[in-house]
Amino acid sequence: MRSPLQLISSLIFGIFILNSCGKGGGTPATDPCRGVTVTVTSSITNPSAPGQSNGSLVASATGGTGFSFSLNGGAFQSSGSFNNLASGSYTVTAKSSTGCSGTGNFTLTANNPCAGLTITVNGTFTNPTGPGTNNGTISASASGSSGFTFSIDGNAYQSSGNFTGLGGGLHMVTAKDLNGCTGTANFTLVAPDPCAGVNIVVTGTVTNPTSASSANGAISTSATGSTGFTFSLNSGAYQPSGNFTGLPAGNYTVTAKDANGCFNSANFSLVAPNPCSGVTVQVTNAITGVTPCQLPANGSITATPSGGTSPYTFSLNTGGYQPSNIFNGLVAGSYVVNAKDVNGCIGSGNAVINSLPAGPLFNAVKALLQAECVSCHNAALQNGGMDWTVDCNIVTFKDRIKIRAVDGTPSSMPPTGLLPLSERQKITNWITAGGRYTD
Ligand code: HEC
Description:
The chain is mostly beta strands. It folds into 5 domains: 39-108, Immunoglobulin-like; 120-189, Immunoglobulin-like (Sandwich); 201-270, Immunoglobulin-like, CATH 2.60.40; 282-353, Immunoglobulin-like (Sandwich), CATH 2.60.40; 360-433, no CATH class. It is 14% helix and 36% strand.
Protein backbone atom coordinates (compact mmCIF):
# COMPACT_ATOMS: atom_id res chain seq x y z
CA MET A 1 0.00 0.00 0.00
CA ARG A 2 1.22 3.49 -0.80
CA SER A 3 0.67 6.30 1.57
CA PRO A 4 -1.45 9.21 0.28
CA LEU A 5 1.68 11.35 0.14
CA GLN A 6 3.50 8.80 -2.04
CA LEU A 7 0.53 8.65 -4.39
CA ILE A 8 0.50 12.45 -4.88
CA SER A 9 4.27 12.40 -5.52
CA SER A 10 3.85 9.73 -8.21
CA LEU A 11 1.12 11.71 -9.93
CA ILE A 12 3.29 14.86 -10.04
CA PHE A 13 6.22 12.82 -11.47
CA GLY A 14 3.92 11.35 -14.13
CA ILE A 15 2.66 14.79 -15.13
CA PHE A 16 6.29 16.01 -15.46
CA ILE A 17 7.08 13.15 -17.82
CA LEU A 18 4.06 13.91 -19.91
CA ASN A 19 5.19 17.49 -20.40
CA SER A 20 8.82 16.50 -21.03
CA CYS A 21 8.21 13.82 -23.64
CA GLY A 22 5.03 15.13 -25.12
CA LYS A 23 3.59 11.67 -25.03
CA GLY A 24 -0.09 11.49 -24.33
CA GLY A 25 -1.71 8.72 -22.34
CA GLY A 26 0.10 5.47 -21.69
CA THR A 27 1.92 4.41 -18.66
CA PRO A 28 4.30 7.00 -17.12
CA ALA A 29 7.96 6.03 -17.99
CA THR A 30 11.40 7.28 -17.01
CA ASP A 31 12.78 9.96 -19.47
CA PRO A 32 16.28 8.80 -20.50
CA CYS A 33 17.28 12.43 -21.26
CA ARG A 34 16.26 13.79 -17.91
CA GLY A 35 19.27 15.52 -16.43
CA VAL A 36 21.25 14.95 -19.61
CA THR A 37 22.84 17.99 -21.31
CA VAL A 38 24.15 17.54 -24.81
CA THR A 39 26.71 20.20 -25.68
CA VAL A 40 27.76 20.86 -29.26
CA THR A 41 31.08 22.49 -30.12
CA SER A 42 32.72 22.97 -33.48
CA SER A 43 35.89 24.05 -35.12
CA ILE A 44 35.32 26.65 -37.83
CA THR A 45 37.04 27.29 -41.14
CA ASN A 46 35.78 30.55 -42.66
CA PRO A 47 35.29 31.00 -46.43
CA SER A 48 38.48 32.33 -47.94
CA ALA A 49 36.74 35.37 -49.47
CA PRO A 50 33.32 37.00 -49.73
CA GLY A 51 31.17 35.00 -52.13
CA GLN A 52 33.25 31.89 -51.69
CA SER A 53 31.58 28.66 -50.37
CA ASN A 54 34.63 26.90 -49.07
CA GLY A 55 34.10 27.26 -45.35
CA SER A 56 33.56 24.26 -43.10
CA LEU A 57 32.39 23.17 -39.66
CA VAL A 58 33.69 20.13 -37.74
CA ALA A 59 31.25 19.59 -34.88
CA SER A 60 31.55 17.29 -31.88
CA ALA A 61 29.27 16.69 -28.97
CA THR A 62 29.45 15.71 -25.31
CA GLY A 63 26.78 14.38 -23.00
CA GLY A 64 26.27 11.03 -24.64
CA THR A 65 27.59 8.54 -27.16
CA GLY A 66 26.89 7.44 -30.71
CA PHE A 67 26.11 10.98 -31.92
CA SER A 68 24.76 11.85 -35.35
CA PHE A 69 24.69 15.42 -36.62
CA SER A 70 22.29 17.62 -38.59
CA LEU A 71 23.01 21.01 -40.16
CA ASN A 72 20.18 23.60 -40.13
CA GLY A 73 17.51 20.92 -39.62
CA GLY A 74 18.77 18.76 -42.48
CA ALA A 75 19.26 15.00 -42.46
CA PHE A 76 21.35 13.49 -39.63
CA GLN A 77 24.71 12.05 -40.55
CA SER A 78 27.27 10.19 -38.52
CA SER A 79 30.02 12.72 -39.22
CA GLY A 80 30.13 16.16 -37.63
CA SER A 81 31.95 17.60 -40.67
CA PHE A 82 30.06 19.98 -42.97
CA ASN A 83 31.93 21.38 -45.98
CA ASN A 84 31.39 23.85 -48.81
CA LEU A 85 29.78 26.43 -46.60
CA ALA A 86 29.32 30.11 -47.43
CA SER A 87 29.35 32.94 -44.89
CA GLY A 88 26.37 32.84 -42.58
CA SER A 89 24.85 31.50 -39.38
CA TYR A 90 24.51 27.75 -38.91
CA THR A 91 22.82 25.55 -36.30
CA VAL A 92 24.25 22.07 -35.72
CA THR A 93 22.07 19.58 -33.87
CA ALA A 94 23.74 16.55 -32.25
CA LYS A 95 21.64 13.54 -31.26
CA SER A 96 22.96 10.70 -29.13
CA SER A 97 22.15 7.05 -29.56
CA THR A 98 19.58 7.38 -26.76
CA GLY A 99 17.84 10.19 -28.65
CA CYS A 100 19.03 13.04 -26.44
CA SER A 101 19.94 16.12 -28.44
CA GLY A 102 21.56 19.51 -28.13
CA THR A 103 22.36 22.35 -30.52
CA GLY A 104 25.16 24.79 -31.18
CA ASN A 105 25.06 28.03 -33.24
CA PHE A 106 28.07 28.96 -35.34
CA THR A 107 28.81 31.88 -37.61
CA LEU A 108 31.10 31.71 -40.62
CA THR A 109 32.56 35.02 -41.74
CA ALA A 110 34.42 35.32 -45.01
CA ASN A 111 37.95 36.50 -44.68
CA ASN A 112 38.63 39.97 -46.11
CA PRO A 113 41.05 39.27 -48.93
CA CYS A 114 41.99 42.94 -49.07
CA ALA A 115 43.01 43.29 -45.45
CA GLY A 116 46.61 44.31 -45.23
CA LEU A 117 46.81 44.72 -48.97
CA THR A 118 47.99 48.04 -50.44
CA ILE A 119 47.46 48.38 -54.15
CA THR A 120 49.42 51.24 -55.65
CA VAL A 121 48.67 52.74 -59.06
CA ASN A 122 51.40 54.55 -60.94
CA GLY A 123 51.45 55.98 -64.41
CA THR A 124 52.52 58.51 -66.92
CA PHE A 125 50.37 60.81 -69.00
CA THR A 126 50.43 63.14 -71.98
CA ASN A 127 48.35 66.32 -71.97
CA PRO A 128 45.80 67.12 -74.70
CA THR A 129 47.21 69.43 -77.32
CA GLY A 130 44.60 72.15 -76.80
CA PRO A 131 41.41 73.09 -74.95
CA GLY A 132 38.51 70.97 -76.14
CA THR A 133 40.87 68.54 -77.84
CA ASN A 134 40.46 65.05 -76.39
CA ASN A 135 43.77 63.47 -77.26
CA GLY A 136 45.46 63.16 -73.88
CA THR A 137 46.63 59.74 -72.67
CA ILE A 138 47.33 57.94 -69.39
CA SER A 139 49.42 54.81 -69.10
CA ALA A 140 48.85 53.24 -65.69
CA SER A 141 50.16 50.16 -63.94
CA ALA A 142 49.47 48.70 -60.51
CA SER A 143 51.45 46.89 -57.85
CA GLY A 144 50.66 45.24 -54.55
CA SER A 145 48.60 42.34 -55.94
CA SER A 146 48.06 40.58 -59.24
CA GLY A 147 45.55 39.99 -62.03
CA PHE A 148 44.71 43.65 -62.33
CA THR A 149 42.03 45.25 -64.49
CA PHE A 150 41.77 49.00 -64.86
CA SER A 151 38.98 51.56 -64.95
CA ILE A 152 39.12 55.30 -65.62
CA ASP A 153 36.64 57.79 -64.17
CA GLY A 154 34.24 55.05 -63.09
CA ASN A 155 33.93 53.48 -66.53
CA ALA A 156 34.07 49.76 -67.31
CA TYR A 157 37.17 47.78 -66.32
CA GLN A 158 39.61 46.74 -69.01
CA SER A 159 42.69 44.59 -68.94
CA SER A 160 45.02 47.38 -70.06
CA GLY A 161 46.06 50.34 -67.98
CA ASN A 162 46.39 52.50 -71.10
CA PHE A 163 43.73 55.14 -71.72
CA THR A 164 43.55 57.46 -74.71
CA GLY A 165 41.23 60.18 -76.01
CA LEU A 166 41.29 62.12 -72.79
CA GLY A 167 40.46 65.80 -72.34
CA GLY A 168 41.98 68.17 -69.84
CA GLY A 169 40.99 67.80 -66.22
CA LEU A 170 41.19 65.40 -63.31
CA HIS A 171 41.06 61.68 -64.17
CA MET A 172 40.98 58.85 -61.64
CA VAL A 173 42.36 55.42 -62.55
CA THR A 174 41.27 52.45 -60.44
CA ALA A 175 43.13 49.12 -60.49
CA LYS A 176 41.28 46.03 -59.25
CA ASP A 177 42.82 42.61 -58.48
CA LEU A 178 41.15 39.21 -58.80
CA ASN A 179 39.62 39.51 -55.36
CA GLY A 180 38.13 42.93 -56.07
CA CYS A 181 40.71 44.77 -54.01
CA THR A 182 41.31 48.22 -55.48
CA GLY A 183 43.75 51.10 -55.52
CA THR A 184 43.44 54.44 -57.25
CA ALA A 185 45.54 57.30 -58.54
CA ASN A 186 44.56 60.72 -59.86
CA PHE A 187 46.03 62.28 -62.95
CA THR A 188 45.47 65.92 -63.87
CA LEU A 189 45.75 66.59 -67.57
CA VAL A 190 46.19 70.21 -68.53
CA ALA A 191 45.48 71.50 -72.00
CA PRO A 192 47.93 74.23 -72.98
CA ASP A 193 46.37 77.72 -73.06
CA PRO A 194 46.60 78.92 -76.65
CA CYS A 195 45.91 82.46 -75.48
CA ALA A 196 48.86 82.70 -73.13
CA GLY A 197 51.03 85.56 -74.30
CA VAL A 198 48.50 86.63 -76.92
CA ASN A 199 47.65 90.32 -76.58
CA ILE A 200 44.71 91.28 -78.77
CA VAL A 201 43.93 94.99 -79.14
CA VAL A 202 40.73 96.28 -80.73
CA THR A 203 40.71 99.82 -82.16
CA GLY A 204 38.15 101.64 -84.22
CA THR A 205 36.49 104.82 -85.37
CA VAL A 206 32.88 105.87 -84.98
CA THR A 207 30.44 107.75 -87.17
CA ASN A 208 27.77 109.34 -85.02
CA PRO A 209 24.10 109.20 -86.06
CA THR A 210 22.75 112.40 -87.56
CA SER A 211 20.03 112.81 -84.93
CA ALA A 212 18.77 111.24 -81.74
CA SER A 213 16.12 109.33 -83.68
CA SER A 214 18.35 108.21 -86.56
CA ALA A 215 19.89 104.73 -86.68
CA ASN A 216 22.60 105.65 -89.14
CA GLY A 217 25.71 105.62 -87.00
CA ALA A 218 28.59 103.24 -87.64
CA ILE A 219 31.61 101.67 -85.92
CA SER A 220 34.59 100.52 -87.93
CA THR A 221 37.00 98.33 -85.98
CA SER A 222 40.08 96.25 -86.51
CA ALA A 223 42.17 94.05 -84.26
CA THR A 224 45.88 93.36 -83.81
CA GLY A 225 47.85 90.82 -81.83
CA SER A 226 46.76 87.63 -83.59
CA THR A 227 45.19 86.40 -86.83
CA GLY A 228 41.96 85.03 -88.24
CA PHE A 229 39.76 87.51 -86.42
CA THR A 230 35.99 87.58 -86.35
CA PHE A 231 34.04 90.39 -84.72
CA SER A 232 30.97 90.61 -82.52
CA LEU A 233 28.91 93.67 -81.56
CA ASN A 234 27.40 93.62 -78.05
CA SER A 235 27.84 89.82 -77.76
CA GLY A 236 25.97 89.24 -81.03
CA ALA A 237 26.98 86.73 -83.68
CA TYR A 238 30.58 86.85 -84.91
CA GLN A 239 31.18 88.10 -88.43
CA PRO A 240 34.32 88.38 -90.52
CA SER A 241 34.09 92.18 -90.80
CA GLY A 242 34.81 94.62 -88.01
CA ASN A 243 32.41 97.17 -89.52
CA PHE A 244 28.99 97.70 -87.96
CA THR A 245 26.46 100.11 -89.47
CA GLY A 246 22.88 101.22 -88.98
CA LEU A 247 23.41 102.05 -85.34
CA PRO A 248 21.52 104.52 -83.15
CA ALA A 249 23.22 106.56 -80.47
CA GLY A 250 24.40 104.48 -77.52
CA ASN A 251 27.27 102.53 -75.99
CA TYR A 252 28.67 99.54 -77.83
CA THR A 253 31.21 96.78 -77.18
CA VAL A 254 33.08 95.20 -80.07
CA THR A 255 34.83 91.88 -79.40
CA ALA A 256 37.48 90.46 -81.71
CA LYS A 257 38.20 86.71 -81.54
CA ASP A 258 41.12 84.97 -83.19
CA ALA A 259 41.23 81.48 -84.73
CA ASN A 260 42.04 79.91 -81.35
CA GLY A 261 39.15 81.60 -79.59
CA CYS A 262 41.36 84.17 -77.88
CA PHE A 263 39.53 87.47 -77.65
CA ASN A 264 39.48 91.01 -76.40
CA SER A 265 37.05 93.88 -76.70
CA ALA A 266 36.77 97.66 -76.78
CA ASN A 267 33.95 100.06 -75.98
CA PHE A 268 32.61 102.73 -78.32
CA SER A 269 30.01 105.46 -77.83
CA LEU A 270 27.83 106.88 -80.56
CA VAL A 271 26.51 110.30 -79.68
CA ALA A 272 23.67 112.00 -81.54
CA PRO A 273 24.13 115.74 -82.12
CA ASN A 274 22.38 117.89 -79.56
CA PRO A 275 19.37 119.47 -81.32
CA CYS A 276 19.31 122.22 -78.71
CA SER A 277 22.83 123.44 -79.15
CA GLY A 278 22.55 127.02 -80.50
CA VAL A 279 18.82 127.05 -79.73
CA THR A 280 17.55 129.43 -77.04
CA VAL A 281 13.89 129.10 -76.22
CA GLN A 282 12.44 132.23 -74.63
CA VAL A 283 9.07 132.74 -72.99
CA THR A 284 7.19 136.00 -72.60
CA ASN A 285 4.09 136.04 -70.46
CA ALA A 286 0.88 138.05 -70.67
CA ILE A 287 -0.63 138.30 -67.20
CA THR A 288 -4.16 138.85 -65.94
CA GLY A 289 -4.11 139.98 -62.33
CA VAL A 290 -6.24 138.58 -59.54
CA THR A 291 -9.55 140.26 -58.74
CA PRO A 292 -9.71 140.48 -54.93
CA CYS A 293 -12.73 139.30 -52.94
CA GLN A 294 -13.82 136.54 -55.29
CA LEU A 295 -13.29 132.79 -55.54
CA PRO A 296 -12.05 130.88 -57.30
CA ALA A 297 -8.98 133.00 -57.95
CA ASN A 298 -8.84 134.31 -61.48
CA GLY A 299 -5.18 135.13 -62.11
CA SER A 300 -4.04 133.97 -65.52
CA ILE A 301 -0.86 133.63 -67.57
CA THR A 302 -0.67 133.35 -71.34
CA ALA A 303 2.81 132.29 -72.46
CA THR A 304 4.37 133.08 -75.83
CA PRO A 305 7.47 131.04 -76.71
CA SER A 306 10.13 131.91 -79.26
CA GLY A 307 13.52 130.68 -80.44
CA GLY A 308 12.63 126.97 -80.77
CA THR A 309 10.61 124.87 -83.14
CA SER A 310 6.82 124.44 -82.82
CA PRO A 311 4.85 122.75 -81.48
CA TYR A 312 5.67 123.67 -77.92
CA THR A 313 4.36 122.30 -74.68
CA PHE A 314 4.18 124.32 -71.47
CA SER A 315 4.71 123.74 -67.78
CA LEU A 316 4.05 125.99 -64.79
CA ASN A 317 6.72 125.89 -62.08
CA THR A 318 7.54 122.18 -61.66
CA GLY A 319 4.23 120.87 -63.01
CA GLY A 320 3.81 118.61 -66.00
CA TYR A 321 3.89 119.80 -69.60
CA GLN A 322 0.60 120.53 -71.39
CA PRO A 323 -0.20 121.59 -74.94
CA SER A 324 -1.99 124.80 -73.86
CA ASN A 325 -0.01 127.96 -73.31
CA ILE A 326 -2.67 129.37 -70.94
CA PHE A 327 -2.77 128.84 -67.17
CA ASN A 328 -5.95 130.00 -65.44
CA GLY A 329 -7.29 130.12 -61.91
CA LEU A 330 -4.07 131.37 -60.36
CA VAL A 331 -3.65 133.21 -57.08
CA ALA A 332 -1.34 136.18 -56.74
CA GLY A 333 2.34 135.22 -56.65
CA SER A 334 5.51 134.54 -58.64
CA TYR A 335 5.56 131.86 -61.33
CA VAL A 336 8.00 130.32 -63.80
CA VAL A 337 6.58 129.26 -67.14
CA ASN A 338 8.60 126.64 -69.08
CA ALA A 339 8.21 126.04 -72.79
CA LYS A 340 9.61 122.92 -74.50
CA ASP A 341 9.91 122.80 -78.25
CA VAL A 342 9.46 119.78 -80.53
CA ASN A 343 13.10 118.78 -80.02
CA GLY A 344 12.92 118.96 -76.27
CA CYS A 345 14.71 122.27 -76.01
CA ILE A 346 13.48 124.17 -72.98
CA GLY A 347 13.31 127.84 -72.05
CA SER A 348 11.48 129.67 -69.33
CA GLY A 349 10.13 133.08 -68.32
CA ASN A 350 9.07 134.55 -65.00
CA ALA A 351 5.57 135.79 -64.34
CA VAL A 352 4.37 137.79 -61.33
CA ILE A 353 0.63 137.93 -60.76
CA ASN A 354 -0.54 140.84 -58.63
CA SER A 355 -3.90 141.62 -57.08
CA LEU A 356 -5.79 144.24 -59.07
CA PRO A 357 -6.46 147.63 -57.38
CA ALA A 358 -9.86 148.82 -56.24
CA GLY A 359 -12.02 150.41 -58.93
CA PRO A 360 -13.49 153.94 -58.69
CA LEU A 361 -17.12 152.83 -58.36
CA PHE A 362 -16.20 150.47 -55.50
CA ASN A 363 -14.17 153.21 -53.85
CA ALA A 364 -17.16 155.56 -54.02
CA VAL A 365 -19.42 153.01 -52.30
CA LYS A 366 -16.73 152.20 -49.75
CA ALA A 367 -16.39 155.89 -48.90
CA LEU A 368 -20.16 156.22 -48.58
CA LEU A 369 -20.34 153.27 -46.14
CA GLN A 370 -17.46 154.61 -44.08
CA ALA A 371 -19.27 157.93 -43.77
CA GLU A 372 -22.85 156.76 -43.25
CA CYS A 373 -22.87 153.22 -41.92
CA VAL A 374 -19.75 152.06 -39.99
CA SER A 375 -20.90 153.70 -36.79
CA CYS A 376 -23.42 150.84 -36.51
CA HIS A 377 -21.50 148.23 -38.61
CA ASN A 378 -17.85 147.69 -37.54
CA ALA A 379 -15.70 144.97 -36.07
CA ALA A 380 -16.96 145.59 -32.58
CA LEU A 381 -20.56 146.37 -33.47
CA GLN A 382 -21.86 144.18 -36.27
CA ASN A 383 -25.59 145.03 -36.47
CA GLY A 384 -27.32 142.43 -38.64
CA GLY A 385 -23.99 140.59 -38.82
CA MET A 386 -22.50 143.32 -41.01
CA ASP A 387 -18.99 144.92 -40.68
CA TRP A 388 -18.39 147.48 -43.44
CA THR A 389 -14.76 148.16 -42.41
CA VAL A 390 -13.78 144.97 -44.28
CA ASP A 391 -13.60 145.60 -48.07
CA CYS A 392 -14.66 142.13 -49.13
CA ASN A 393 -17.76 142.29 -46.89
CA ILE A 394 -18.95 145.15 -49.11
CA VAL A 395 -18.49 142.98 -52.22
CA THR A 396 -19.97 139.86 -50.66
CA PHE A 397 -23.12 141.53 -49.27
CA LYS A 398 -23.70 144.05 -52.04
CA ASP A 399 -27.20 142.73 -52.70
CA ARG A 400 -28.18 143.26 -49.05
CA ILE A 401 -26.73 146.77 -49.18
CA LYS A 402 -28.84 147.58 -52.23
CA ILE A 403 -32.06 146.16 -50.75
CA ARG A 404 -31.68 148.04 -47.48
CA ALA A 405 -29.96 151.26 -48.48
CA VAL A 406 -31.35 151.78 -52.04
CA ASP A 407 -34.71 149.99 -52.12
CA GLY A 408 -35.44 150.58 -48.39
CA THR A 409 -37.04 147.16 -47.95
CA PRO A 410 -38.23 145.99 -45.55
CA SER A 411 -36.88 149.05 -43.79
CA SER A 412 -34.32 151.60 -44.75
CA MET A 413 -30.69 151.77 -43.88
CA PRO A 414 -29.68 153.85 -42.17
CA PRO A 415 -32.70 153.39 -39.95
CA THR A 416 -33.17 157.14 -39.78
CA GLY A 417 -34.18 157.24 -43.44
CA LEU A 418 -32.84 156.70 -46.94
CA LEU A 419 -29.80 158.63 -48.05
CA PRO A 420 -30.13 161.30 -50.74
CA LEU A 421 -30.67 159.96 -54.28
CA SER A 422 -27.20 160.98 -55.41
CA GLU A 423 -25.67 158.83 -52.66
CA ARG A 424 -27.90 155.88 -53.40
CA GLN A 425 -26.99 156.24 -57.08
CA LYS A 426 -23.36 155.42 -56.22
CA ILE A 427 -24.50 152.05 -54.93
CA THR A 428 -26.67 151.45 -58.00
CA ASN A 429 -23.92 152.44 -60.40
CA TRP A 430 -21.39 150.12 -58.83
CA ILE A 431 -23.68 147.09 -58.77
CA THR A 432 -24.83 147.77 -62.34
CA ALA A 433 -21.18 147.80 -63.45
CA GLY A 434 -20.69 144.33 -61.91
CA GLY A 435 -20.31 144.98 -58.23
CA ARG A 436 -16.68 143.84 -58.17
CA TYR A 437 -13.79 145.15 -56.12
CA THR A 438 -12.23 146.35 -59.33
CA ASP A 439 -15.25 148.18 -60.76
C1 HEC B 1 -28.02 153.78 -36.46
C2 HEC B 1 -27.45 152.49 -36.74
C3 HEC B 1 -27.42 152.04 -38.13
C4 HEC B 1 -26.94 152.73 -39.17
C5 HEC B 1 -26.34 154.11 -39.30
C6 HEC B 1 -27.00 151.78 -40.27
N1 HEC B 1 -27.54 150.61 -39.86
FE1 HEC B 1 -27.77 148.93 -40.93
N2 HEC B 1 -28.51 148.00 -39.36
C7 HEC B 1 -28.74 148.55 -38.15
C8 HEC B 1 -29.42 147.60 -37.31
C9 HEC B 1 -29.86 147.85 -35.90
C10 HEC B 1 -29.61 146.47 -38.07
C11 HEC B 1 -30.27 145.16 -37.67
C12 HEC B 1 -31.80 145.26 -37.78
C13 HEC B 1 -32.32 145.21 -39.19
O1 HEC B 1 -31.82 144.33 -39.94
O2 HEC B 1 -33.14 146.07 -39.47
C14 HEC B 1 -28.99 146.74 -39.33
C15 HEC B 1 -28.91 145.76 -40.37
C16 HEC B 1 -28.34 146.07 -41.59
C17 HEC B 1 -28.20 145.09 -42.63
C18 HEC B 1 -28.50 143.67 -42.51
C19 HEC B 1 -29.91 143.36 -42.70
C20 HEC B 1 -30.20 142.41 -43.86
O3 HEC B 1 -31.14 142.73 -44.53
O4 HEC B 1 -29.41 141.45 -44.06
C21 HEC B 1 -27.68 145.71 -43.68
C22 HEC B 1 -27.34 145.12 -45.06
C23 HEC B 1 -27.48 147.06 -43.29
N3 HEC B 1 -27.87 147.22 -42.03
C24 HEC B 1 -26.94 148.01 -44.15
C25 HEC B 1 -26.71 149.33 -43.72
C26 HEC B 1 -26.15 150.32 -44.61
C27 HEC B 1 -25.73 150.09 -46.08
C28 HEC B 1 -26.04 151.39 -43.88
C29 HEC B 1 -25.56 152.74 -44.37
C30 HEC B 1 -26.09 153.26 -45.61
C31 HEC B 1 -26.55 151.13 -42.57
N4 HEC B 1 -26.98 149.84 -42.50
C32 HEC B 1 -26.57 152.03 -41.54
C33 HEC B 1 -28.34 149.76 -37.74
C34 HEC B 1 -27.81 150.77 -38.57
